[in-house]
């Protein structure tokens, strides 16, 4: 349908007005538009970085755009300012800025450097280590270190409970670490089985009292568990072997054996026990030759005074003589200073005897005799030692016949006369001599010949022989 001329005229008049209005509105909007800078932070606004790790900044982007005509954009360069130190925990800021020449805008990102790694605990362990049942665990060792705090060993808390040791430590960031050690309870050591007196010799008709102990590191005293195989008939001369065995609660066993020699009872009722102190020395071999010539057995109370002659101990034992402990040092001030000092000296000599003969001794003679007064500087020491020696299973011997060679007698003829005179006073004679005196060794053959001619029997001492004890003076 065709428009009328009037309508066409109106349209022609309105169109220019519309265009003018449109431009007017556009100009108004453009004048109201403001240019703004927008910074967009890439990634999280708050980022967490592990201590010691590298911080990788995701960065930011910036544009200039209109507040109304936002589609009009221009990319801007972003400058970054950061104080982040990954080697130190804390909260940091990364600041981004952009400018269009007339204005500047900033934005910031929070970076938290944190330590979330717990400390490390290292346990030292000995594969052969164990703890005795009922005993406290002995620490094998441990250490603790942290990636931030360093050595934390001194901060470790250690708790022992129900067979486990728990070690716990925390670092300055509150990270905690615990490790546990299982305690190995075991007993791998056999009991200590001790035969008091070692091998022993008794005279026919005498008595043998068996004495031994068994001590275990876990079970304690288990002497009552010792079994003994063998018997001793003291009425019949011979060698009797006794075998001992004991086991602890973990099945660890110890065995030992001793030989008990029952020697024939000397014929007759007049006996001479020749005893020699302070050797072996330079004249001992000659003395042994004399004794062998007459088949006479004697007793040697030995010392460590002449180490170069200690091989004579083996010969003495091999030829049937009795060996007893005298002293290792013969130092009165040392050995009588205390009971411990005495037994320490005693044990050293026992070890020398055992090394040379393969056996320990069960008899001994006190340096100076049990009646000595050289020990008076320690009141009561001899009374204690005489009693203690019996409790330890030892028999001590004094003498009732003195050759005098320990004092002022310096000739063989005097030694000979002293022995003969005093032997005629007793039926049982324990004769004190010293094989380190040449003049004494020189006259022993004369003493033997006199004794045999006058009905005396010569014999070595045994634990049940006449002890000739003196009266204890201290």
Fold topology:
Elements: H1 5-32, E1 35-41, E2 46-50, E3 60-66, E4 73-76, E5 79-82, E6 90-99, E7 104-114, E8 120-123, E9 142-146, E10 150-151, E11 157-161, E12 164-170, E13 176-182, E14 192-195, E15 200-203, E16 212-216, E17 220-221, E18 227-229, E19 238-247, E20 253-263, E21 271-277, H2 284-294, E22 299-303, H3 312-318, E23 322-327, H4 332-335, H5 339-357, E24 363-364, H6 381-391, E25 395-396, E26 401-402, H7 412-423, E27 428-434, H8 438-453, E28 457-458
Parallel strand pairs: 2-7, 15-20, 21-22, 21-27, 21-28, 22-23, 24-25, 26-27
Antiparallel strand pairs: 1-3, 3-4, 5-6, 6-7, 8-9, 9-10, 11-12, 12-13, 14-16, 16-17, 18-19, 19-20
Give your account of this protein's structure.
It is a single chain. The protein has 474 residues and is an alpha/beta fold. It has four domains: 37-114, Immunoglobulin-like (Sandwich), CATH 2.60.40.10; 120-182, Immunoglobulin-like (Sandwich), CATH 2.60.40; 192-262, Immunoglobulins (Immunoglobulin-like); 266-458, Alpha-Beta Barrel (TIM Barrel), CATH 3.20.20. Helices cover 23% and strands 32% of the residues. It has helices spanning 5-32, 284-294, 312-318, 332-335, 339-357, 381-391, 412-423, 438-453, and strands at 35-41, 46-50, 60-66, 73-76, 79-82, 90-99, 104-114, 120-123, 142-146, 150-151, 157-161, 164-170, 176-182, 192-195, 200-203, 212-216, 220-221, 227-229, 238-247, 253-263, 271-277, 299-303, 322-327, 363-364, 395-396, 401-402, 428-434, 457-458. Strands 21, 22, 23, 26, 27 and 28 form a six-stranded parallel beta sheet that branches. The model has no long low-confidence stretch (mean pLDDT 91).
